[in-house]
Write a structure and sequence with these properties.
The chain has about 625 residues and is of the alpha/beta class. About 35% of the residues lie in helices and about 25% in strands.
């Protein structure tokens, strides 16, 4: 028996193994590495075998009475250790999982310091790039210290963590925001060969992170931070603006709570109309003339009053017009279209001339030709007018009752235009998505987007639109994954939800990123206090997990089902973790490790309210 040996295996099964400790042992032993506690739950033990060292974790300690038939003998008992096998060390490299079970009566040893270093992968933190200059590139990122072994730093493999999707779960107040802030701050501590190529876009749902990132540039002058705020105040510095012309019909459907059968088709038609009529390079007027003529004719033939008809026609032709059809065009030798539809004693001055004029432009073979793929810029007000135009046009070719079905849609859109969303969704100064994304990212390593002032539907649209813009931008790059972007979403359960209805797009953008984003360099990080409400597809594609205290039974059950590498012992442990402690596991770390995260400096703006100080005042 060596100085590390604490017992031997007495039971081996697929459910786990049991070791019996030697009777002569106390609560600790003195080894070459120092004093070590014996039988501590959560600590590691080693079992030596031919060509490998099996590593196990102590998951429980029990007392077993020792029965004897000898007369006058004292009651006695032994200690038994329940051990979960987690991996093995072969040729000084740790592998998660065990190739075969150990043999009965094998010795169980307290893990050595060398084996612990191999397991936790705390060596070789950097690799040399230019030996003459002494430059090194970081391979591992310290994120905290081991709770079981406080002297050891927990480190993540940078490529395996940030090169794949990851998730951070935990109850409110468990330390999720501090964990994300600490990890991001640690990325940029290295000033020699620093992470200038990083691109981190954070959706800051609660306005927490601007404070945490405020000192990064002072610590490392090579790093630039951009903080954008979704605000309606035009005086707000770094106010977030999103090109309204980048929104799809699906985005508008979410914002406006549009019904799929009647209102979504109007939105799709409005986008096509806006792209066709607001494109200065579109000189093909045949389709536009057909649409204008059909709309004007439909309005004139409707059952509305003459005054209403006149106002509607003038409203349409004020914004949407061509050289052939506009209010000031001559429809005969003496009359303009404007004069023909002007009211005189309750009727049009010359309705028949107006009808004959527009009928000449109607070409039924062009009715389905209005599908425009080209990206065209326009304002929110112009889109509102396009929706009204689309309503009149659809009424002229199908049912006049379409205006009844879309009245609430237009009312919501008008309210949206007048509210904070109308200040965020603008035309912007950019002519293309590429120009917008290039300006959004620029030379900044961190782009923090504060959406805390937005309601849920607006915040969801902003998040989805930004995600889609980034994915489309990366897809258009010459080389795949040449500029990786980590898209980190706080309060992800508000946006990355389980959805059975994918809308007119036919897919969920976050699920598409989860499945395809890695190939193009768009990697998601999701943080949530309600993992059970998240998309199963997205969670299943995450390769690494940081799980703080979780107490909701539904969430615990969901984690047990959806998250790899996790067993029931780990699930039980999640319910009583301290604030700031988390279980870290996945491909970026050799084995699941209970980790203590240090307080971020500066810390995120997420402190609890100090009730006694706020209540009891002079």
């Amino acid at each position: 028996m060596n100085s590390r040996s604490i017992g031997k295996l007495v039971s081996i099964s697929q459910r786990g193994i049991v070791a019996e400790m030697y009777e002569s042992l106390g609560n600790y032993v003195n080894t070459m590495d120092g004093i070590r506690f014996v039988g501590e739950v959560g600590s590691y033990v080693s079992i030596y075998d031919i060509g490998r060292t099996i590593i196990g974790e102590i998951t429980g300690v029990e007392e077993k009475p020792v029965l004897t038939s000898k007369p006058m003998s004292k009651p006695n008992s032994s200690r038994q250790l329940n051990i979960n096998l987690i991996g093995e060390i072969i040729s000084n490299k740790f592998f998660f999982g065990v190739s075969k079970m150990p043999l009965i009566f094998s010795e169980v040893n307290i893990i050595s310091e060398n084996d612990l270093i191999t397991m936790l992968e705390v060596s070789d933190e950097e690799e040399t790039i230019k030996e003459t200059e002494g430059s090194t590139r970081a391979k591992l990122l310290p994120i905290g210290s081991s709770v079981i072994f406080p002297d050891y730093s927990v480190k993540l493999n940078i490529d395996k963590f940030f090169g794949f999707h990851f998730a951070v779960f935990g109850n409110t107040g468990a330390g999720k925001s501090n964990t994300i802030a600490t990890i991001i701050q640690n990325i940029f501590l290295k000033t020699n060969y620093s992470a200038r190529g990083a691109k981190l876009v954070i959706i800051d749902s609660n306005g927490e992170y601007a404070q945490a990132f405020s000192s990064i540039t002072a610590v490392n002058p090579q790093i630039k931070v951009k903080c954008l705020v979704a605000s309606e105040s035009t005086e707000q510095e770094n106010r977030l603006e999103i090109p309204v012309w980048a929104l799809t019909a699906d985005d508008w459907a979410i914002l406006l709570h549009a019904t799929e059968k009647t209102q979504v088709p109007i939105l799709k038609r409005a986008i096509d109309l806006a792209r066709s009529f607001f494109d200065p390079d579109n000189h093909d007027d045949d389709v536009k003339n057909h649409i204008l003529a059909s709309t004007v004719l439909g309005i004139i033939n409707s059952s509305d009053t003459s005054a209403s008809k006149s106002d509607k026609v003038k409203g349409v032709l004020t914004t949407f017009k061509t050289e052939a059809i506009n209010l000031d065009v001559m429809i005969d030798e003496a009359t303009t279209l404007r004069n023909a539809i002007t009211m005189h004693y309750g009727a049009f001055i010359n309705e028949e001339a107006a009808i004959n004029f527009v009928q000449a432009f109607i070409k039924n073979d062009l009715a389905d030709s209005l599908v425009v793929a080209k990206q065209v810029t326009y304002t929110m007000q112009q889109f509102l007018e396009a929706v009204q135009f689309a309503t009149f046009y659809e009424g002229s070719i199908s049912s006049q009752r379409i205006q009844e079905y879309t009245s609430t849609l237009i009312t919501r859109l008008q309210a949206l235009n007048d509210g904070i969303q109308g200040k965020i969704l603008t035309k912007t100064e950019f002519e293309s998505i590429e120009a917008y994304v290039n300006d959004l990212l620029g030379e900044h390593q961190i782009v923090n987007i504060d959406i805390s002032l937005l309601d849920d539907s607006s915040a969801e649209v902003v998040t989805k639109v930004l995600a889609k813009l980034l994915l489309d931008h990366l897809k258009r790059m010459d080389s795949k994954a040449d500029m990786p972007i980590n898209f980190i979403i706080e309060e992800a359960h508000r946006f990355v939800r389980n959805e059975s209805n994918y809308g007119v797009l036919g897919y969920n953008i976050f699920e598409r990123i989860a499945k395809e984003g890695r190939k193009f360099g768009l990697l998601m990080g999701i943080s949530s206090q309600r993992p059970s409400e998240l998309s199963k597809t997205v969670v299943s594609q995450c390769s690494n997990f940081i799980i703080h205290r979780v107490q909701n039974p539904d969430d615990l059950q969901y984690i047990a089902k959806m998250v790899p590498y996790v067993n029931q012992g780990m699930i039980d442990r999640l319910t009583y973790l301290q604030t700031g402690h988390a279980l870290v596991f996945g491909t970026a770390i050799n084995l699941p490790t209970l980790t203590k995260f240090e307080q971020a400096s500066p810390k995120p703006d997420s402190d609890n309210a100090k009730i006694s100080e706020k209540w009891y005042i002079e």
